[in-house]
Amino acid sequence: MKEKITDMKERIAGFWKNTSKKSKTFYLGTFIVLIAIFCFVFFFLLKTNYVPLYTNSLSQKEIGEIKDVLEKQGFTDYKIENNGTQILVPKESAQDLIVSLASQGLPKSGPISFSEQTKDLKFGVTEQELDVIERETIQKQLANLMTKISGVKSAEVMITMPKDSVFVRPEQEDKASASIIVDLEPGTELEQGQIKSLYFLASKSIPNLPKENIVITDQYGQLLSLDDSNDDSSFVGVGSYESQRKIKQKVEADIQRSIQQMLGTMLGKDKVYVQTFAKLNFDKVKTQQSLVEPLTKDKDGNPLGIAVSVEKISKEYKGNGAAAASGVSGTGQGDVPAYASNSDSGNNDYKETQDRVNYEFNRITKEITQSPYTIEDLTINVGVEPPNPKNPASLTADTQDNIRNIISNVVRTAIGNNSSTITDADINKRITVFPKEFTGKTNLAAASVSEPEKRSYINYIWIGAAAFVLLLGGIVAARFIRRKREDDLDPFSEFLEAKTINEFEEDVRNKQTVQNEINQLAGKNTEEFVELLRYWLKEEKEG
């Protein structure tokens, strides 16, 4: 065995000695890379995969209780993270630990049903004890329900229920009250819609609890008040600066995206850049109108309503032989002053007709509530890269006019309420189209690659490099194994490796010399040749 080991060492030393320096460097580099890959793979295969024991964050007190129970059971392979509110255990042990801890009533902050609270009650429990258990169950269920709101890590609820009275006093019915403390995630600021959801969850979960009797604060003692203004719009907190800013940004982004898509389809997506600025009016306007309109029109086109009542009066008088007037003109009692009376006698006719018609018209009362925001003004700037980026004049005037016409229609439609007072010249002042080479296009494209995409590219590079190294190692190993097999199959390999080519040629040359001398001896001196053959045969028999 020792001789085989020594022989193996000598063969390896001989192989390494006869190998060139370039091959030695290649073999050493391949060996080091293979060792590094194997260590990397074994590290990840043998690495323990830790997972959260519970998906929701627990209090530090509960984490401490769970930690004590695990250590009493002899389990120490755990990690505590997230400021002591989360415990990590090996993935293969998570399910068994959850069942084991649940059998001991841990964690205590999870949802607890009324049946679980009352299952261990003894016979003869009082009604007050049942009320306490019911109130505690409602508090825990409501606290767990509030944690479903984004940004709320945990909650504590304290409810005060009114006492039942034997007297019927519906007008003086006592109301419930609730005090709630929510523990928010770091850096979280609840919006008015989320605060409103918390108030409604509490109000609808507890009977006879108005929103006025609810107080909600965060862990820092700041009151989360409900903005219960009489606003009929569907926009919550539209009066706040943050809400107005978000609405303004959304309007600008929508207009910018639609123009970008349309112009990008015609000119190229990387040939157009659109920038939009909007001015919005957030005043809420209520208008009440009382209108009177006719129902129909007459034949002359005049407004005509419905005839509600019609009254016709007709008077007629006929007479003859009226007496002639006497006296001085303008001075008699029966005469009109300053006019002479008619002195002629004859027949007199008198006829009077009156038509009185009362018409009814449409009486319309309108109450109009405008939207909480309208677009008062809009400015759009469009940058276009010419077909020849170095020559801005390559973007023709017709193309620029077409772009202006498209954008002017958008501006005119967006500020439609003021379109009657805005002329085409005013709209053209709000539009700017400029041809310019996009020098920052490459940087923008490179910067548009998101961080997850960069990480995926790096992962692909590592995977490709590992695959290449494994392939290279496989080729080297295959060549080594094939050479080893060839060495084992060749019986003269050891002999050929021990001698050089010069030594082999010298042996062949010596054999030819001996053969020539024997031939000469056989031709010149036959008796000596025969004696030599006998001597060789004798040595062969004795040997």
List the helices and strands and how they pair.
Elements: H1 2-17, H2 21-46, E1 50-52, H3 60-72, E2 79-81, E3 86-90, H4 91-103, H5 114-118, H6 127-146, E4 152-160, E5 177-184, H7 192-205, E6 214-218, H8 241-267, E7 272-281, E8 286-293, E9 296-297, E10 303-304, E11 306-319, E12 348-360, E13 362-369, E14 374-384, H9 397-414, H10 424-429, E15 431-435, H11 441-447, H12 451-489, H13 493-498, H14 501-524, H15 526-542
Parallel strand pairs: 5-6, 14-15
Antiparallel strand pairs: 1-3, 2-3, 4-5, 7-14, 8-13, 9-10, 11-12
Explain what this protein looks like in three dimensions.
By secondary structure, the chain is an alpha+beta fold. Among the domains are: 23-106, Alpha-Beta Plaits; 128-163 and 173-233, GMP Synthetase, Chain A, domain 3, CATH 3.30.300; 248-284 and 371-435, GMP Synthetase, Chain A, domain 3 (2-Layer Sandwich), CATH 3.30.300. It is 46% helix and 20% strand. It contains 15 helices and 15 strands. It has helices spanning 2-17, 21-46, 60-72, 91-103, 114-118, 127-146, 192-205, 241-267, 397-414, 424-429, 441-447, 451-489, 493-498, 501-524, 526-542; strands at 50-52, 79-81, 86-90, 152-160, 177-184, 214-218, 272-281, 286-293, 296-297, 303-304, 306-319, 348-360, 362-369, 374-384, 431-435. The strands form 6 sheets. Strands 1-3-2 form a 3-stranded antiparallel beta sheet. Strand 2 and strand 3 form a beta hairpin. Helix 6 packs antiparallel against helix 7 and helix 14 (501-524) packs across helix 15 (526-542). Residues 263-419 form the Flagellar M-ring C-terminal domain. Belongs to the FliF family. Keywords: Bacterial flagellum, Cell membrane, Cell projection, Cilium, Flagellum, Membrane, Transmembrane, Transmembrane helix. Residues 47-225 form the Flagellar M-ring N-terminal domain.
